[in-house]
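In this section we walk through a basic example: taking a raw amino acid sequence and producing a predicted 3D structure, encoded as discrete structure tokens. The instruction is simple. Fold the sequence below.
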Amino acid sequence: MPLTLYSHPFSSYCQKVLIAFWENDVSFEYRHLEDPGASEELASLWPLRRFPVLVDGGHTVVESSIIIEHLDQHHPGPVRFVPNDPDAALEVRLMDRFFDNYIMSAMQKPVFEALKAEGARKEEAMSEARVALDTAYAWLERRLAGRAWAAGEDFTMADCAAALPNRSPQRRHPEVVGRTLQAPARCRGRPARRPRIVTDEGDGRTWLATPDYQRVAPFKKPAVDPKPSLFSGRLAGNTSLVEALRVGRGRLRWPPADA
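The resulting token sequence is shown next.
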């Protein structure tokens, strides 16, 4: 029975899991949570309705880090996301949780405020996020010294987590980001790195795509006039912030593959 991933293209945690799938070329069905019936299916599988959720046969796996460890154990490939050595595994898990809890969480708070109808705390939340990110990246600067990847000499689950939040802070902390997933010489030859966002110049539809720009899932609304910032980009209709870079008016995409 094929693997099914309940996912949404806006979710960084879903994109984190996609990196693990693509690194080891594991086949799966992408269940877009905006497709008819998908949200109800998710609720029946996981009452908390958080995503991503993986269904592997009759087994439901929740939480992005647990999904990656599940893939590592039950669908292994050339890349081991958590090493066998206990101490090395602890470092991988530490760095994975650090990127999720202290980088990604800090980045999301202003986004949540901006999505609220009143948005009263938007500027305050943005200021708090900058302080939190400055503190986190100062710690990373020391922790990553001498390392090729986030947890050592090999690409691991920690790098799946590090790949996504580093898109936006890289202009503020380029020296630290360069020591995580951005190590260019090593990254260019990897089978997968980061998901992309592309806009079809014909019909204007915006898509989540693989690192080589193969389309995976469409966004329901077209991107318009994205403006670079800590959280860059907005969508037509109700404002939703996404991490992206402006490429001309009305066009939205991630940095190029060799960035």
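Looking at the output, two observations stand out. Strands lie at 4-7, 29-32, 53-56, 59-62, 196-199, 206-209, 215-218, 245-246, 252-253. The helical segments are 12-23, 38-45, 64-74, 86-115, 122-143, 157-163, 174-177, 184-187. In the next section we compare this with other chains.
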